Amino acid sequence: MAGVRSWFVGLSAALALVAVLAGCSGGSSGAVQRSVARTNRLAGLVTDPAPDVGSLSLPDASQGGRDLPFVAQPGQVLLVYFGYTSCPDICPTTLADLHHAIAGLPVADRGRVQMAMVTIDPARDTPAVLQAYLAHFFPSGHPLATTDQARLAAAAAAFGARYDVTVSTSGEESVGHSALVYAVDRHGQVVDAWPFGVDSSVVINDLRILLRRSGTA
Amino acid sequence: MKRWLWWVVGGVAVVAIVVVVVSLAGGSDGATGMSVSDAWSRSTASSQTTAAVYATVTNNDGVKNALVAVSVPSAVAMSSQLHETMTTPATSMGGTSMGGTSTTMANSSSTTDPGMTGMQEVPSIPVPGNATVKLQPGGYHVMLMDLAKPLTKGERFQVTLQFAHGASKAVSVQVK
C-alpha cells in the first residue's frame, strides 16, 4: 500500500509542478500585490477617555534611579511595557517585534520613539538585571524598577495594566500580566496600545500618526 | 508543440520519478514517524536566565503522539520545561482594572480587554496523527531555565526531543 501512496504523491507533485509552470507562463497575472494601507486612524487599542499617567513616575535604572515621568518629550512618543526578565516567550518576542517595527520607520524618526520597560517582578529584577535586559533590545531604553509595590501598583493601574505574581509553596513563581505596549504622548496620556502578536505594519503606521501629532522637538 | 513545452514535460517526468523514488526510499523511516524542523531560539541578554525554544514538529504517522520532554545540555541550561503561553479573559484573574472607561480596537465594534497573559507548564504537547504542531511565540514552547551563558545570535546548540512513542530526536537549534 505504501507504494501506491507514493505513486499518488509523485503524481500529485507532478501535477502541482505543471500547475506552477502554467501559472508562470501566464505572465504577471499571478503576482500578488501586497501593500499595507496607510490610514490616519490608529489601529491599536484606543481607550476613551485616554488614561492620564503623566503625574506618575518610576525610578529609571539607566539614570541612577532618577524618576522618569510617564510623559513623552516634545516631538517624541514614549512606549511603556510592563513585563519581567525571566519571561522567556512573550516579553522578548514583544520587545524584538517592537525593535523590528521601529526599524521600519524613517531613520530620522527612530530616535523619536523612547522605550520604557517596567518590571512587575522587582523581587527578581534588580535595576541592574532589568537594565541589562532592556539594553539587549533597546540600548537607550529606560528600565523602570521599584520595590515599592504600592507605587508599582499605582502606575500599572493608571495605565490599565494588570499583573499577578504568585509564588507557590515550592518556590516556583507564576506570573501573569497584560501583554500590551502602551504609547504615551507629550501630555502624559495613553493614546494607543498594541496587544501581543500585533502585525508590525500596524505599529509602524500608528507610530507615524503619533509622531506626526507629537510635533517637533 | 513548442520546443519549450517538451522541456517542461520532460522536467515534470524527471521530478515525478525523483519524488517517487525518494518517497519509496524514505517510506521505511518509520522508527518514530516524527520529524522536527526550524528549531530556533532568540538570542538573550546577559542578565537573562531563561529562553524559549521553538520548532515545527510533524507526526508522519496516523497515530497520535506527543512531545513529553526535552533534554538540554548543562552547558546550555540547567533544565527545561514544556510550556504553553495563554491569555486569560479579563474577569478570571485578579488585579487592577479600570472603571468607567471603554477600550476598543479601532477597527472592531466589540469592547476588548486582552486580559492577562501567562505561561503554564504542560505535561506534554500533543501531536495528532498526520499533523504538524508549531511551537511558536505566544503558544507552545520549550522553556530553558537557568541558562549557563547567554545565547548568542548565529550559534547553534543541541537538544533532544522525547516523544510518548518511538525514538527521541536530536535537534540542532539555531539562535537568531
Give your account of this protein's structure.
The complex is a heterodimer of chains A (217) and B (176). By secondary structure, chain A is α/β, with parallel strands linked by helices. Chain A has 6 helices and 10 strands, in the order H-E-E-E-E-H-H-E-H-E-H-E-E-E-E-H. In chain A, the strands form 3 sheets. In chain A, strands 6-5-4-9-10 form a 5-stranded mixed sheet, sandwiched between helices. Chain A has a two-stranded antiparallel ribbon with strand order 2-3. Chain A has a two-stranded antiparallel sheet with strand order 7-8. In chain A, a hairpin with a 5-residue loop joins strand 2 (57-60) and strand 3 (66-69). Chain A is globular, with a radius of gyration of 23 Å. The N and C termini of chain A lie far apart (73 Å). With 176 residues, chain B is mainly beta. Chain B has 2 domains: 1-30; 31-90 and 101-175, Immunoglobulin-like (Sandwich). Helices cover 14% and strands 44% of the residues of chain B. Chain B has 1 helix and 11 strands, in the order αβββββββββββ. Chain B has one helix spanning 3-26; strands at residues 34-41, 50-59, 65-71, 77-88, 102-105, 116-121, 125-127, 131-135, 140-147, 156-163, 169-175. In chain B, strands 1, 2, 3, 4, 6, 7, 8, 9, 10 and 11 form a 10-stranded mixed sheet that branches. The model of chain B is unreliable at 24-31 and 91-112 (pLDDT under 50). Classes of the chains: A alpha/beta (217), B mainly beta (176). Chains A and B meet through helix 1, strand 1, helix 2, helix 4 and helix 5 of A and helix 1, strand 2, strand 4, strand 5 and strand 6 of B. Strand 1 (45-48) of chain A pairs antiparallel with strand 5 (102-105) of chain B, so a sheet runs across the interface.
